[in-house]
């Protein structure tokens, strides 16, 4: 099922002459063949500072971050834009943006703030990639100063 889906997505992308694939909230694992076919041309947005909370989805991620803050005092969180590889959430990091969790944050309020950061990070990566004719690797290792 997954391989057939990947082939169909590839066919549609090739027919449309797609140069860059952006995954936002795409909660499916792409196969190795798909990742290799689109190597350095797929980016994903993740709602944490990877590698922290790799493999989790948004509300779960925000709940984990809030729980960690209450247990350890570590209030730093954020989002990551990264290249997609066959290993989930393990591709090279293109951009990270950070924010602090407030004591009264809920998973919902934190999600809204993180989504704002995700949009900013994505726009920055896409602008840089466009300026370099679709080369997503031009964005690598671009992160803001730590909080």
Descriptive overview:
This protein is of the alpha/beta class. It has one domain (2-143): Formyl transferase, N-terminal domain (Rossmann fold), CATH 3.40.50.170. It contains four helices and five strands. Helix 3 (58-72) packs across helix 4 (107-131). The longest helix has 25 residues, at 107-131. The radius of gyration is 16 Å and the shape is globular. The protein starts with a helix and ends with a strand.
Summarize the topology.
Elements: H1 2-15, E1 21-23, H2 32-37, E2 42-46, H3 58-72, E3 76-83, E4 93-100, H4 107-131, E5 142-143
Parallel strand pairs: 1-2, 4-5
Antiparallel strand pairs: 2-3, 3-4
Q: Please describe the biggest sheet, giving its number of strands, its sense, and whether it closes into a barrel.
A: 5 strands, mixed
CATH first level: Alpha Beta
Distance between the termini: 43 Å
Q: Please state the overall shape, judged from the principal axes of the Cα atoms.
A: globular
| Continuous helix count | 4
CATH fold-level topology: Rossmann fold
Query: What string gives the helices and strands in order?
Result: HEHEHEEHE
Number of strands: 5
- CA gyration radius, whole angstroms: 16 Å
How are the strands ordered across the major sheet?
Answer: 1-2-3-4-5
Total number of distinct structural domains: 1
Question: How much beta, percentage-wise?
Answer: 15-25%
Helix content: 40-55%
> Are there runs of 5+ residues with pLDDT below 50, and where?
none
CATH superfamily: Formyl transferase, N-terminal domain
Mean pLDDT: 91
């Amino acid at each position: 099922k997954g391989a057939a889906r990947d082939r169909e997505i590839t066919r549609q992308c090739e027919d449309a002459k797609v140069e860059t694939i952006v995954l936002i909230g795409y909660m499916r694992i792409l196969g190795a063949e798909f990742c290799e076919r689109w190597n350095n041309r797929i980016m994903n947005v993740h709602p944490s500072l990877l590698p922290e909370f790799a493999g989790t989805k948004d509300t779960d991620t925000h709940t984990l971050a809030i729980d960690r803050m209450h247990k350890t005092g570590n209030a730093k969180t954020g989002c990551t834009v990264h290249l997609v590889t066959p290993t989930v959430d393990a591709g090279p990091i293109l951009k990270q943006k950070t924010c602090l969790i407030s004591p009264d944050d809920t998973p919902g309020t934190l999600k809204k703030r993180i989504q704002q950061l995700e949009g900013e990070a994505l726009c920055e990566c896409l602008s840089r990639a466009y300026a370099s004719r679709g080369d997503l690797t031009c964005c690598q290792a671009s992160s803001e100063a730590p909080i």
